[in-house]
Amino acid sequence: MQPGTEKAGQFNTWRGSVAMCVVGGLGGCPFAPGAAGNLATEDLVLMASQCGLHTGIDLVALMSVVAMVQELVGLPIGGRSARWLRTVVEQDSHKEEEK
User: Fold this and answer.
1) pTM recorded for the entire structure
2) 51 is catalytic
3) What ranges do the domains of the chain cover?
4) CA-CA-CA-CA torsion sign (13, 18, 20, 22)
């Protein structure tokens, strides 16, 4: 991507359409009681990466942000891939400690 051509997006899932993503999938819809929340940024970044798209987002750093926000809100948060991503991040940090 050429400098100055960066793009931004906002994604969520609603009736199969995509429009907003949020760290940890926080949020919901005041018009849909019990709505699970928004598409998690970490899920979108992981999917893009697995599709071969370069996002420029450090997934390990993003998961650190998810952990920080989780601590701030005092509730378990994270996208559908969060448990797996946390395991991968934890394994990578153990490998770094062993070096």
Assistant:
1) 0.66
2) no
3) 13-98
4) positive
